[in-house]
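Ticket opened by: R.M.
Priority: normal
Category: complex prediction / small molecule

The reporter submitted a protein together with calcium ion and asked that the result be attached to this ticket for the collaborator who will pick it up next week. Submitted input follows.
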Amino acid sequence: MQQEKPLQTRHQVSESEGEEEAAKENDKDALSELEGRRRLQGARGLQDDNIKGSLGPAIIQQHRQRQLFSHRRKRRRLWSMLGVWLLLAFGAPSLADAFVLEGSQTSYAQFRKWLPTTNSSIEFEFLTDQPNGILLYTDDGGYYDFIEVKLVEGTVRLRFNFDREPKVLTVGQNLNDGRTWHKVIIARNGLETALTVDQIRATAQLPKPKRPEDLNFGNITLNSYVYVGGLPSWYTTRLSNLALPSVVFEPRFQGAIRNLVYVDEGSEAKPRRQEVMAYRVRER
Ligand SMILES: [Ca+2]
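Result attached by the on-call engineer:
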């Protein structure tokens, strides 16, 4: 999978950089040991040369040098161990439980339909080094209601429509750092919709609807699946099936996604982690 390459390569690069650093440190250690031994041998030579002469000062010097090298070795080993520990603790991001999208014209992941009530949410985490790409999309099958989450110049932009009046919320910056997982939560609470990215929150209020049912998000029969990272390419020939047709022309997301969780009508108000239904990462 091409997509996995950049992330995994970076993963590997930083790991191998770490290993190189550690190897360099080990080399330095080995070098300093060799150097130390050579110097000690030199000192011993000096000692041998001076056996007949002033043996006392040479032995003291040798002892001091041994102490010095031993101290330096210990210090270097400590730094080297600290480096490895820091790399393990704060180094390359983990891709456990994540799936990777290559960002090609056909890559996407499909999840079960999300049927939000006016007290529901959808959340996920992403990791990328690309500033733009469609993160998530779902709609009512081509009528009015939709949710589009997009990364725009390193910022999360949510566009949504629950009652014929589209709204936009934007949160975050420089989210395409390629090293950190960023968490996106979209939560509905009555007339309020909130977008939270890494605990920074923005909200939008809907006007009171003419009919309470207008606040519904489509229905379970007609709604599209939830698409992450892009949409299936057959949508390009059936734009009328989309409430926001422009979504198929958006750049696809290149990066990793994990922990897609819904609270909706089907989850009885309990957050439920979703499994991928279909997943396409490359041209065929
Ligand atoms: Ca609606």
